[in-house]
Write a structure and sequence with these properties.
alpha/beta, globular, five-stranded parallel beta sheet, about 120 residues, Rossmann fold, 4 helices
Length: about 120
């Protein structure tokens, strides 16, 4: 059964964060926080107990793979989706293809086996 999914979005500028919010939110998924840089993004994801960190390349910093590892070490169920060229994350969506963000997130949830719809049974 679907349960609420908590999401944090991170991008360097406000307009891009708004774009990420619109691309990620659904009736069942809630954007619970945002950040404009790598360190605040991880802190926000941990504090908000987010299932997803949607990390735009503009806020990924020089070592996004280390950022993803640190988040997962404190929150093993957390998933990181990169937008643009972001290395070492669970999935990547092209910077100009935000319409594919929700599908990438759904696929990660289903692959983890902890998210199912009645039609999946």
């Amino acid at each position: 059964m679907c349960t609420a999914v908590r999401i944090v979005v991170a991008a360097a500028d406000r307009e891009r964060r708004l774009q990420l919010r619109r691309a990620a939110v659904t009736a069942e998924w809630e954007v619970v926080g945002e950040a404009d840089a790598p360190e605040p993004a991880v802190r926000e994801a941990l504090e908000r107990r987010a299932r997803f960190l949607v990390l735009d390349a503009s806020a990924a910093g020089p070592r996004p793979e280390a950022l993803a590892r640190r988040l997962r070490s404190s929150s093993p169920d957390a998933l990181v989706v990169g937008v643009g060229e972001v290395a070492g994350v669970d999935a990547v969506v092209a910077a100009d293809a935000l319409d594919g963000l929700r599908e990438a997130m759904r696929e990660l949830l289903h692959a983890g086996g902890d998210h199912a719809h009645p039609e999946d049974r």
